[in-house]
Amino acid sequence: MPVAKAPVWQVLEPRNRELGPEGQKAKNLEHWRYARDGNEVVWLILDRSGESANTLSEAVISELDTVLGEIEGSGARGLVIRSAKPGGFAAGADIRDFRGADDAGQIEPRMRQAHAVIDRLARLKMPTVAVIHGHCLGGGLELALACRYRLAISGTSFGFPEILLGLHPGLGGTFRLTELIDPVEAMTMMLTGKNVHARKAKALGLVDAVIEERHVANAVEAAVAGRLDQDRPGWKARALGLAPARRMAARRMRSEAEKRAPRRHYPAPYQLIDLWEEHGGDRDQMQKGEIRSFSKLLAGETAQNLIRVFFLREGLRANAKGDSGIERVHVIGAGTMGGDIAAWCAARGLKVSLTDLDPKALAKAIGRASAFFDKKVHSSIERRDALDRLMPDFDGAGVAAADLVIEAVAERADVKKKVYQSILPRMKKDAILATNTSSIPLEALREGLSAADRLVGLHFFNPVTRMELVEIVSHDKAAAKTLKRASAFCGKISRLPAPVKSAPGFLVNRALMPYLVEAFLMIEEGTAKEDIDRAAERFGMPMGPVELADTVGLDICLEVARMLGERLEGQVPPVPAWLARHVEAGETGRKAGKGLYAYDDKGKPRKQSPKGENDEARLDRMADRLVLPILNTLVRCLREGVVRDEETADAAMIFGTGFAPFRGGPLHYARQRGIDDVRAALERLQDKHGERFAPDAGWNDLK
């Protein structure tokens, strides 16, 4: 008897969602359909035409207005809104409608029209019920908030991710959510963009009940009949209706926001806080202010750049389509990278065997995986299942059953090749052999390999559980099928595959290393490391190069810098001698508790107060010296064909290194700043610091 792949409670669930009356003719528009059931309740089903997920385009909202006009005064007892899409209720507004919007004066009237439709739904005299499954985000949540009742199917998640696009909710969310639940909790949802799951949503009062699919019809009838109790905002909400209390709360919110998103780069959190502080509790003024603020943000550079980043992500996701045929993964090397790759794959539903010559390293990796599952996997049963899928493999026997073998051993070609010779005779004939090398060209690794067509680079980034990018490194002997399956595997484990050609350092590390080495040279010249990091962070980097080098590991930085220096003559300068001394002394960075910084017991660097002047022009010059080599290297990689286009290069640097997202990517930043201006700045740095800053010939191709 075959073993079911899904948990038993999912197998026993009805296969079809409750979508209203059966056997009755529904009224159909392009994106909506509706019919009245025997209890005189209208079931309105959102099923956006030609799309796999529901989004609220202008056409969808316009049709909703038409439907509401037909339902008003129809004598219906109630209205239910559901999604026909299996993935969820709605994923928010259609981002495609936002792209290129640069005139707030033209945006505002469109937003007022959309608000009028949602307000019309909220004013219906009959009970309105949103039945929600899967994801309910952004505009989808705002649609649900306009209903009197919200019923969540177990497993539903709710959120306002607009802040990640440089925006805040714009379809009534700012005032409806802060009226419905604890305003501080509401503001936290909107300011962080983090999702809340169904049970927490119920505890917050965001939904009225959490139910299983089989109970939908009964729950709807209870809501329409007025038998569903609703929580009301408590004393805290009433207190925050007073301006002095809002001012105090707003002050704390601004302080927290500044830690994550500096005002000079990310205006949206501060405009949202200002809006609530000034108008909280006054629905009419809050709504007018929301429309003005949202329109201004949408037309701004930050939001348009972050919308570009959204589409860069979608471009990488498109690489991951298809079936990889990979169900079992064998990882060789239980260090930080190998262990975390294994844990992540197990968390995403794959069966994983993890092996290492050192039993202690293997035990440590399993312990780290268990802690990760405890923190990030939502239910105890799912945590148990994830841990069951991750098998410590002391003998390396798992290689024989694996569809994919990932090698994550020491960054030395001779060590890696020895591993390949050992495992290839035991691998399945169609299994993929992947290396997690961060810099070694695959041409060097495939020498003498009998199955070079099945060798591919799968370069994950540290920390694996947070960094989304995986470089898919090709070489001229790799089979197209191998590359396609490797990319699809990334999609299976919710990672973003960026195709690059084999070259020293590939793309991301090759572009990042000049940034790190330049910081080392600045320290050599006497610049305080805290000032160097401050300059990079002022530019918008999530972490300065000195702290980043400590995070990556000074030993790894030294090895990669030496390799690139040898293979890319003149492009990467020699690293200062003191870096090797740090490594020899075991001061390799955060993992050792000491590197260029010393670290506390929480892994935070102990930084001194800035020693340099707080001179913005000086910091901007330092940032140019650090960042422009990244741009110059990416242009060189484009010219050499290491990466296929600007979009892939920008996406790789954002999702692989965290390059200032609000700038839309390094090459996009170069275009916005002006190609001639960037080239002139490089020439000035060349005159002052040497030929490593010489503008690449590829800049001529970007005109």
Account of the protein in words:
This protein is α/β, with parallel strands linked by helices. The chain contains 28 helices and 19 strands. The chain folds into 3 domains: 8-306, 2-enoyl-CoA Hydratase, Chain A, domain 1; 321-494, NAD(P)-binding Rossmann-like Domain (Rossmann fold, 3-Layer(aba) Sandwich); 509-702, N-(1-d-carboxylethyl)-l-norvaline Dehydrogenase, domain 2 (Orthogonal Bundle).
Q: Summarize the amount of helix as a percent range.
A: 40-55%
Largest sheet: 8 strands, mixed
CATH 4th-level superfamily of the largest domain: 2-enoyl-CoA Hydratase, Chain A, domain 1
Structural class: alpha/beta
Cross-sheet strand order for the largest sheet: 14-13-12-15-16-17-18-19
For the record, the CATH class of the largest domain is Alpha Beta
User: CATH topology of the largest domain, anyone?
Assistant: 2-enoyl-CoA Hydratase, Chain A, domain 1
Q: Strand percentage, roughly?
A: 5-15%
Named CATH architecture of the largest domain = Alpha-Beta Complex
Domain unit count: 3
> How many distinct helices?
28
Total number of strands: 19
**From the structure provided, what is the oligomeric state, counting identical versus distinct chains?**
single chain
The residue-averaged pLDDT reads 92
How would you summarize what this structure contains?
The protein is of the alpha/beta class and 703 residues long.
Describe the SSE topology:
Blueprint: H1 8-12, E1 27-28, E2 32-36, E3 41-46, H2 58-71, E4 78-83, E5 88-90, H3 104-123, E6 128-132, E7 135-137, H4 139-145, E8 149-153, E9 157-159, H5 173-180, H6 183-192, E10 196-197, H7 198-204, E11 209-211, H8 216-224, H9 235-239, H10 243-260, H11 268-279, H12 283-298, H13 301-319, E12 328-332, H14 336-347, E13 351-355, H15 359-376, H16 380-389, E14 390-392, E15 404-407, H17 413-423, E16 432-435, H18 442-445, E17 455-460, E18 469-474, H19 480-492, E19 496-501, H20 508-524, H21 529-539, H22 545-552, H23 554-567, H24 577-584, H25 616-640, H26 646-657, H27 666-673, H28 675-689
Helix pairs in contact: 2-3, 3-12, 5-6, 10-11, 11-12, 13-26, 14-15, 15-16, 20-22, 20-23, 20-25, 21-25, 25-28
